[in-house]
Amino acid sequence: MRSFTRVLRVLVLATIATLLCRVSAAGATTSSLDLVSQSLNHVEVSTKWSGQDNACHTLNWGDGSWVDLCGSEGDETKGHDYEYAPGDVETYEVSFLGETLEIVIDDRPSPTHSVYLPFVVRQNTPVCTIKVESQQLNRLNFDLQWSGGEEWNRLLFGDDAYVDLKGRSGFTFVPHDYRYTPGGITTYQATFMGSLCSVEVTIDDRH
Predict the structure, then answer these.
(1) DSSP string, the chain
(2) Which CATH architecture has domain 127-204?
(3) pTM given for the model
(4) What CATH number has the domain spanning 30-106?
(5) Proportion of the chain above pLDDT 90, given as a percent
(6) Best label site of 35, 54, 139, 166, fewest CB within 10 Å?
């Protein structure tokens, strides 16, 4: 008899525990609120809930508008278009059953950056300058600078005379006496390194 009583007690306690677990599970409530996608001011949010009162629950968009989602459980995705200030930032807070989600609408223009690259002259690219340093009527003194040239570089004075300057780079002064027409104007074109650079020479003997 005592054994039967003990078994009966165990069965009763097990039944009570099972019922309590079922009641506890039935009373459990869950909810979630997630951002699915956003395109500037248009957003899509996902809502899930269960174990809630069999009523309507408010999804608040945070801008004075809302939508009611009804039932003790559900899984829905809703879209919404927000007002925003062009060129500025707007922030809203979406809420649903105690869950919150921040929405940021950023319409500021993307920053621009200017990148300045150094000007690089290849070593093999010939460059030169030629100018008249001084002139006394037909006697001129030329100022020359060059780099990236040949082993010998020719300076043509423009009157069939020339001089060869040695070195792939360098600088020097070269004097020259030109023929000229007394009482008139005589013009020549001096060139250097195959006409890479040149300068015009004018001898004016008018009085």
Answers:
(1) -HHHHHHHHHHHHHHHHHHHHHHHHHH--EEEEEEEEEETTEEEEEEEEES--SSEEEEE-SSS-EEEEESSSEEEEEEEE----TTSEEEEEEEETTEEEEEEEE-PPPP-----PPP---TTS-EEEEEEEEEETTEEEEEEEEES--SEEEEE-SSS-EEEEESSSEEEEEEEE----TTSEEEEEEEETTTTEEEEEEEE---
(2) Sandwich (2.60)
(3) 0.43
(4) 2.60.40
(5) 65
(6) 54
